Amino acid sequence: MYAVDCNGHCDDCSFTWCSTAPATRPSKAQQRKGWRQDAVEELDDLADLYGIDTGRVRL
Fold first, then answer.
1. Burial class (CB in 10 A: 0-12, 13-18, 19+), 21
2. Considering just the CA atoms, what is the radius of gyration of the chain in Å?
3. Dist CA 51 CA 45 (whole Å)
4. Cα–Cα distance measured from residue 14 to residue 2, given in angstroms and rounded to the nearest whole number
5. Per the confidence metrics, is the pTM higher than 0.85?
6. Which of 35, 15, 42 minimizes the C-alpha distance to 6?
7. In angstroms, how far is the first alpha carbon of the chain from the final one?
8. CB under 8 Å to 22, separation ≥6 — which residues?
9. Tens-place pLDDT, residues 27-53
């Protein structure tokens, strides 16, 4: 087995950096919050690029 084959969640992994903890997924609410934060940051960057005052825009 090579390092590229390891997903980090096997029980008998020979790699010292491998975690045997089960994979956890963020909740739907956490995903939505993350997506919203990413979108707000992207819009803020675009506003800076095009010279738009973000204080006058409701996001």
1. exposed
2. 20
3. 10
4. 10
5. no
6. 15
7. 49
8. 9
9. 899 999 999 999 999 999 999 999 988
